[in-house]
UniProtKB/TrEMBL annotation:
InterPro entries assigned to the protein according to its UniProt record, in alphabetical order: YhjD-like
Pfam family, one: YhjD
Name this protein carries in UniProt: Uncharacterized protein
Length: 122
């Protein structure tokens, strides 16, 4: 990130990743709804609680981004990367993320929200 500081980068990262996590968990809820679990309600409750926590954090991220004058456009897929335009206090830059990086980051964040800590890969 050229024009922002570390806090700006963290905000942009969360702004990109949290909606992605909500989409993933929402799809998982649909799968659980039609799966042959004997007791599916505990899984549904767990995922719904995680989604609520992510939604509350995303709300705070959006407020702080507004206060810091940061805007992010929706991701635009280009081959095997996703491209975002970031506007930071009047400056514009383009950030490109490999889709595999976004997937791996989403997996780590899912573990964080489900288990309470970030679990390192071995």
């Amino acid at each position: 990130m050229l024009y922002g500081d570390e806090r700006d980068r963290i905000l942009v990262d969360k702004y990109i990743m949290y909606p992605m996590l909500l989409t993933i968990f929402n799809r998982d809820l649909k799968v659980i709804a039609v799966s042959p679990f004997k007791l599916r309600q505990p899984y549904v409750t767990l995922i719904e609680n995680v989604m609520n926590a992510i939604s509350f954090e995303l709300k705070d991220v959006k407020k702080e981004m507004m206060a810091r004058k940061i805007k992010v456009t929706d991701g635009r897929p280009v081959d095997d990367i996703t491209e975002y335009q970031i506007f930071i206090r009047g400056y514009q830059e383009v950030m490109r993320f490999p889709n595999v990086h976004l997937r791996n980051k989403a997996e780590l964040l899912m573990k964080h929200f489900l288990f309470g800590t970030l679990i390192e890969r071995k």
